[in-house]
Amino acid sequence: MGCSRVRTYGELVMFSHTLFSLPFALISMLWAAQGLPPGRIIFWILVALTGARNGANGLNRLIDREIDAKNPRTAHRHLPKGLVKEWEVILLIFFCFALMVLAAFMLNPLCVKLLPLPIFIFIIYSYTKRFTWACHLILGIACGGAPVGAWMAVTGAIGWPSIVLGAMVTLWVAGFDIIYATQDVDFDRSHGLFSIPAKFGIQNGLYISAFFHAGAVSLLMYLHFLMETGWFYLTGIAITAVLLFLEHIIVSPKNLRTMRIASYNINQVVGVVMLIFTALDMFIKIR
């Protein structure tokens, strides 16, 4: 397989968007281990997250291929344009999920027992836009499972901090996915698809997105008290709050041209910022 084909598969599943869930999974890992866990654990966590995230995206592309072909915004994607075959995507999905399954077996029994749950959520999410405007929250839950899974990988149990962090990721992802959905309001309404902007209008959708993001920042603050973090972590929260505030300043119903910056570019920075400052907080004790 040539490098160009590998790049095509990476574009298909939007591999670069791993930056959304990965940092918070690593934060959960650090907290669960109270430092760095053994290298073997880190490796298999990364394998599991990579497999789960890219398998889920491949599944979404496969299930949505007919909708994508009808939408002018998404008609250029790999499956509608015929850049990849359906059988290739199916093989890619199985390969990615096989990585997740292998990683679970290499970690601990609880990870193995709970394997069906994330796969079920991944499948359900891909159909939710067909019957509920809560699809953004289902996507958030799919991503929010990463911190819970990372904690389980380290401890063999589910910890309350990982659930709170997972809830934070759920609200954060749902919030910026609502912003992303504003560009498809007309298409969604005309084709009987569901989203918060299509159901409640763009302006109300942006208000709901802002509410979700305020909730996400509040949960980060709660984790400050729960985990007894210090000034580095608080600095990370402050930067995150400013970034999310900026996100909602630059986008409006009259100016959706900045939608991609608001929904993707800014949020790719959020996770990295929180990971860096959480790691600094853990390894450089300033209280």
TrEMBL record:
Protein encoded by which gene: ubiA
GO MF annotations, alphabetized: 4-hydroxybenzoate polyprenyltransferase activity
Subcellular localization(s) per the UniProt record: Membrane
Highest taxon in the source lineage: Bacteria
UniProt xrefs under InterPro entries: Polyprenyltransferase_UbiA-li, Prenyltransferase, UbiA_prenyltransferase, UbiA_sf
Keywords, comma-separated and alphabetical: Cell inner membrane, Cell membrane, Membrane, Transferase, Transmembrane, Transmembrane helix
Protein topology in the membrane: Multi-pass membrane protein
Source organism: Thermotalea metallivorans
Family: Belongs to the UbiA prenyltransferase family.
Name used for this protein in its record: 4-hydroxybenzoate polyprenyltransferase
Keyword Chloroplast: no
